[in-house]
Amino acid sequence: MKRLTWLLAAVAVFAGCGLLCGGGLVVTSLFGYPRPIQDRLDQRAMLRHFDLPTRLRLVEYEGYPAVVGFGQREGLNLRAVFQLTERQAEDLERRLVEDGWLPLPVPAETRRKLQGYVDPRTLALSAGLYQCRTAGNDVLRARETRPCAEADWLNDAIFGAFDADTRRLHLQVGSGY
Questions:
Q1: What are the residue boundaries of the structural domains of the chain, listed by start?
Q2: Residues 119, 122, 126: CA angle, nearest 5 degrees
Q3: For every one of its 177 residues, what pLDDT tens digit does the chain have, with 9 covering 90 and above?
Q4: DSSP secondary-structure letter at 84?
Q5: Is the pTM of this model over 0.85?
């Protein structure tokens, strides 16, 4: 038993982190959280940027890179699509207007700035609302952001579009660092 305990402790130290939880050993590596946990953390961070509830139904998700490395995620690109019920869509649309979201389509100048950060299909939406913000640094954890229109060029992008026709909410967060 002692050998097994030492072996588990060595694995935990080698992997980067070991936590005792309920008598069991949970191990995460220096290379980040396991993919499902990292995806969920990323999805929550995206919803937080737009002050949205976590109970929305996720229908599409892509996250790159998959895990946090040694404190960095160069070339971060997260995309999530949520399907809303008719009631959720009505409530959300009203709230987004109050929060200053702008009517689609996205203006050409803003689309140009967003190339490489936002899926072209999302930028092509024509009915609904959108919001584009930039943090300038540490995009997932940024507490202060500013509208994309105020920036000459974007170092990162926090983009949301509500498609009124399909009742889908598209969120995308990306960085060029």
A1: 1-30, 34-175
A2: 150
A3: 555 444 444 434 334 443 433 433 333 433 455 567 878 888 888 888 888 888 899 999 998 765 555 455 678 889 999 999 999 999 999 999 999 999 999 999 999 999 989 999 999 999 999 999 999 888 888 889 999 999 999 999 999 999 999 999 999 999 988
A4: -
A5: no
What sign results for the dihedral spanned by CA atoms 48, 49, 55, 57? negative
Distance CA 23, CA 45 (A): 30
Long-range contacts of 83-91 (CB under 8 A, 24+ apart): 83/57, 83/59, 83/167, 83/168, 84/56, 84/57, 84/167, 84/168, 84/169, 85/167, 86/167, 88/56, 88/167, 89/162, 89/164, 89/167
